Amino acid sequence: MILAIVFAHVWGILQLIVLGSFARTVRVRTTLAAMAAGLYACAPVAVLLELAWTRPVASVTGAPLSDIMRMASYTTDPFMEEFVKVLPLAILLVVVRVIRRQWSITDCVLVGAALGSGFGLAEDLYRFSAAPANAVWIGGGWLVRPNFATIVTVPSPLTTVTSWLPAGAVSNSLFSFLSRAPHPVDLHLALSAIGGFAVGLLLQHRASVSRRAGVLLLLYLGFDHAVYNAALQVSAPRALVVLSSMLQELLRFLPVVALIVAWWLDRQRQNTETIPELALAAETTISPPVVGTLRTALSRAPWSVAWVDALVRMRRAYASAGPESGAEDRLRKLIVDLRDRIDRAVAQSGPLPITASSWTRAYFAWFRQPKVIVLLVMITPSILWFVVGGFPTTALLQQALAWPPAWTMIRVISAAAFAWTAWNVFVSIRLWVQAVQLPLADFPATFALGLLSGVGAVALGGYAFVLSVTGSPHARVISSIHASNAMGNLNVMDGLILAALGAVVAVALLSGVGELLAAGGVVGTTAAASGGVVGTTAAVSGGVGATLGTAGGLGTFGELGGVTAALGAAFGGLGQSQMSGSPLPDAEVIIDPDADPFGGTLVPGLELPPGEVPSDWPEGVDPWNPKLPKPPKVPVFDDYPIEQPPPKTPSDAPPQNQGGDSGQSGSKRSKKA
User: Fold this and answer.
1) 637 in Cβ contact with 571 (< 8 Å)
2) Quick one: which of 65, 202, 402, 527 could link to 518 by a disulfide (CB 3.0–4.6 Å)?
3) In whole angstroms, what is the distance from residue 374 CA to residue 254 CA?
């Protein structure tokens, strides 16, 4: 049941991502990072803001706290929540220049929707993470805690996939439940999608009309949310209930309208036809070029679909940023390199020899790593609580976890996870200056969202841990608090396990960018003594090899956690050199900026030709980082039948490319003294 709630929130995001594919530049992973930030950062901040004024007002006026909370639910709290949900997006656009230059308004809609979905997921988990014991399967979902006023249902996965922007848990009246009314939309997701659109108009479009429209939209969101909450009151007038129902029906279509308008506003800024030198070979020989794009994408499906999707998104980001020096020049080199590799791979004949046994060996190699084993131990309580024990038939497991020996073990594991995450957050903050200089906006965005998630998870977990030392696992974390009074239902064990899971997720988000900085290949900077700490969960995020793949982006396949992990392990990406090595020494690692930006063996079919590595390079040394041992490779992935050009000798090597877009296949690796 708990998995069904999570799946519903993720499914709504995926629906919008598909609709926004015509103009988005963000990866799926970045939107999921935004969802984690909404869950672990935005929701706790909203709770703190509500506490900051309701408790003092109740104390000064002498009014019951419940009355103050009820009044706040349809007056100030809706406006406060809508502001908090889009605040991380606004901060990213204002603070990080590369995000402001590359992200489209469509990206703002998707990231805003993900933040809102995470916020809504927090409310549902606060309410129902311990509710499986009180749930009953009714066909098409679960019935949770029925009473005379409200019936709460959780949709089954089948109901979710056949619904539009489905809510994770639905509060129905008895009449709507018996009449089988349409499944309602996820309120927070839909409202925050409009909020992201409003932020995009305010900060990205910047026309006076757009700014006024953005402000009006933000006010409308607060009004819509306030009307919805007011209609839930027992004494709500009939007219208010009807108005709320009309607004909810309208809300089904507003995210689609926002994506259409965003695409219209983005189309001129993202016009890649003005940059013909970044086109694929098929795009230059077939008219119209979109036919060449589709033909290339389908030529080596499913892998080529991911390659072309990544290339298209990177070209949009480059076109949005404009041809300026700095990060855009480095991004141009990444695009040209990926373009050349795709053309070379598509031109070859024969299928890629990827078999089930090779994938199995890659996964087993990943699971055997000591740091991954530690990671799995840390998320074991979350798996037992939310996954295994998250159904009515297995709810006894949740009760068993409250048994004193198990409860003690959970506290020990959670404390270790919080300490580990706190250290990673501290180390990652030191890398912020380098992170914002990376050439693709997804890197600093994921990094910042991971920091937010980590800080929120550690704060929530630390508070729950203090309560767990002196109190019962069934004690309430906070009594009578809004975010729809959700956190008032959160007990200490729920909060501790949920925060521990968030701590591990935050480290996974931070690890990819941290290792990229530690490798130093793209920006040529130093990351002293940080690689081993920040990169401890590189396997979860796919390692630096897979992280660069999603940056250039492996697209849909490269963004999914399990697949990127397999790619990082199977193809010997840079992440493995950090996962199996020690922290970097306190010295600057200088790497040739013209070195292979994709680590040599990123995905099958896109490897560098053998001649690209200097013949006199010492055996067993990683060309990207001479101070680290060369990572081991999975043998089955070493011999792809890709015809490669003969090695180049110094006498016939072409002159050094000044513009970074000459169209030559690959880039030369070399090291600097």
Assistant:
1) yes
2) 527
3) 44
